Each structure stands twice: as C-alpha cells, then as structure tokens.
Amino acid sequence: MRRTEDKPINEIRRKDRAKGDDWSKNYLKTAPFAAIATLHDGQPFINHNIFYYDEEKNCIYFHTAKEGRMRFNIDDNAAVCLNAGEMGRLLPADVALEFSVEYKSVVVFGKAEIIDDEELAGSALKKLMNKYFPHHEPGKDYREIMPEEIKRTSVYKISIEYLSGKEKKADENFPGAFLYNTIV
C-alpha cells in the first residue's frame, strides 16, 4: 500500500468518481457555499462561507469580518483548503457497510491573501453579490457598496494551486434511494 504522503495532494483514491478540472471549475461556479480550512499552531479551524469562483483568474473570493479567527490565521499562514460539496440521495443496501450516498464535491488547495486594494475588494464583493443576488441591481434594489463598508470587512483571494473534483451518482432507479429528511 502506498503511503498517503507519497501521493499528489489532489489525487482521488476512487478513480471511478474522479472528475476533471473542467467539471470541477464548473461546479465551483454554482456551488452554494464552501468550508474553508486554515491552520494556526497546528490547530485546524474551519469556517463556512459563501464564495465566488473567478474562472479567468483561477481564484476564489470570499469575505469575513475585519477581525477574527479567519483573518488572524491567514495573516499567520496563507495555506488554505476549501471544500464545496452537496449531498444527493441516500442509497440503502443489504449490508450496513454498503450503505452509501450520492454527492458532488470539489476540494481546492491554495494560498489566501487579504485584498487591501479597495477597488479590487469592491469588485470581488460585487461578484459575490452577482452570484447570490443576480436579480438585485445595485443602485436600484440596494445601495452601492461604500468605501467605508469595504474598510469594515476582510476580502480574501485564494489563488488555486491544486483542485480535485469527484462525484458519486447512482442509477436513477436505484432501489430504495431517497433524499435525507424526506422519510418520516
């Protein structure tokens, strides 16, 4: 058996579920949120955030409070790991070990940086707004982002170094398949 540390960071163990870069990047465009992991003094931390994937720049933008654990950790160590995923149907089986679930998932490894330039930070925040509120128009449905508001937040850019995507999808007629929380 090959040791994990000898494998590429983004190698998928189950080759039958591995997806390519194009699939992974397309999924990042539509995934609703992600978990972002940071590290400080050997202690991992994870935070869920909305995000925007910029395909042209191959990076991810997100924001948090100006002060807090995420900002502190990234100031100390720029290495991050991001996971965006979703669960599909639960898949029963005759043997407990064979029970399973459908899913889609992309893991990103990269370096995070805080965007200090107000214009770039504002642009990233507008991209976030457009992803999650495409039917709302700035200046009409809400006030444009103000410079003092940008100063109250930390806007981050994750430069993607590696990514990997995977998906498990069962046959549409899989016996007994159901969505979580739909069986009473």
In words, what does this structure look like?
By secondary structure, the protein is α+β, with helices and mostly antiparallel strands. The protein has one domain: Electron Transport, Fmn-binding Protein, Chain A (Pnp Oxidase, Chain A). It is built from four helices and nine strands, in the order E-H-E-E-E-E-H-E-E-H-H-E-E. Strands 1, 2, 3, 4, 5, 6, 7, 8 and 9 form a nine-stranded antiparallel β-sheet that branches. The relative contact order is 0.22.
What descriptive keywords fit this protein?
184 residues; 9-stranded antiparallel β-sheet; 9 strands; Pnp Oxidase, Chain A; globular; alpha+beta
Q: Helix- and strand-based class? A: alpha+beta
Q: Identify the CATH class.
A: Mainly Beta
For the termini, the CA-CA separation is 43 Å
Helix fraction bin: 10-25%
Q: What do we call the CATH topology? A: Pnp Oxidase, Chain A
How many beta-strand runs? 9
Largest sheet: 9 strands, antiparallel
- Specify the number of helices: 4
Classify the beta-strand content into a percent band: 35-45%
Alpha carbon gyration radius: 19 Å
Instruction: Indicate the low-confidence ranges by residue numbers.
Output: none
Average pLDDT rating: 93
SSE succession: EHEEEEHEEHHEE
Under the CATH scheme, the architecture is: Roll
Categorize the overall geometry. Answer: globular
Q: How many separate domains?
A: 1
CATH superfamily: Electron Transport, Fmn-binding Protein, Chain A
